């Protein structure tokens, strides 16, 4: 969200389209990408690790499969992409109209200079070197800290996903430093530190917001209102006696509403997983399928939850292009996308449970008690 979203606004503006439309589109992808993607990522490992805590209350031998939501994630990614494209083009874009901002704001960089081309080539070689180094740390015989050869086949890549944030940071800083050194804009480590400090300046309002939001989240946790709400809602689901094709959308709906109380997806699932996962296992629904339904509900309301700090961060980016933009205006733009994606996610969940499709490699949608 910090890097990709503002870049999308620049690209849209350079093409003559409204930059806020680029921000909305990019943020919708970032926020809902946690529920489905073409490739598994670090979030899969984190959320399924939390699922394991709940699943082992019923089956102590159950182990997390990092690829456990992969097939479902691909289906969600396709459905969300098509739905978001239709709503953004037909509903959101007409509301914003055409872009008539200052030409200087369109970020039209024009032709690349020889220095820029040299910098990009150097950065490309630096990126290649980092990727080769990461590959070596995964495949080097006898020393592979990013690939656990002694673990079960489904868990061997867990160290790589656990280090993914650090690896992405390393990739960015190496490529940026290489580009700056080649173009002459970076002559030493002091220039890098100065650039990093300057880059954080637009983030200061966000950091202040996070400080106070953290206090609210902490006090909310101390009050136990979150667990009480989650447990009460889960018990209501159990009392319905409904089939999986209906229970899973109900779980997604409950999760979507809880997003207005607990913004963090991992924190919310930490509260819900010890209740929802074993309860659904007793009803014959696999932990992976339960996790997939949870992720659908968690992400769609990320777009419109005021507790989500990235909503405010996106608003800050919007105000760079449209200073009069306010939170209500941004939420009004995001609301039709969130509603459409909710129904698309529920439809995919119902279809998946009705057809009995596998959720991922070695991950069924049903669970049989041992």
Can you offer a commentary on this structure?
This protein has 370 residues and is mainly alpha-helical. The chain is built from 15 helices and no strands. The protein has helices at 4-14, 19-32, 42-55, 70-96, 114-139, 158-162, 164-183, 189-200, 204-223, 225-240, 244-258, 265-282, 287-300, 309-321, 327-355. Helix 9 (204-223) runs antiparallel to helix 14 and helix 10 runs antiparallel to helix 11. The radius of gyration is 22 Å and the shape is globular. The model is unreliable at 103-109 (pLDDT under 50).
Quick recap:
With 370 residues, this protein is mostly helical. It has helices at 4-14, 19-32, 42-55, 70-96, 114-139, 158-162, 164-183, 189-200, 204-223, 225-240, 244-258, 265-282, 287-300, 309-321, 327-355.
Name some characteristics of this structure.
370 residues; mainly alpha; 15 helices
Give the overall pLDDT as a whole number: 82
How helical, in percent, are the residues?
55-70%
Strand content: under 5%
> Number of DSSP helices?
15
Question: Uncertain spans, ≥5 residues at pLDDT below 50?
Answer: 103-109
Task: Please tell me what the overall shape is.
Answer: globular
Structural class: mainly alpha
Structural Rg: 22 Å
Give the termini separation: 43 Å
What is the H-and-E element order?
A: HHHHHHHHHHHHHHH
Largest pleated sheet: none
Assembly state (oligomeric): single chain
Number of strands: 0
Question: What layout of secondary structure does this protein have?
Answer:
Layout: H1 4-14, H2 19-32, H3 42-55, H4 70-96, H5 114-139, H6 158-162, H7 164-183, H8 189-200, H9 204-223, H10 225-240, H11 244-258, H12 265-282, H13 287-300, H14 309-321, H15 327-355
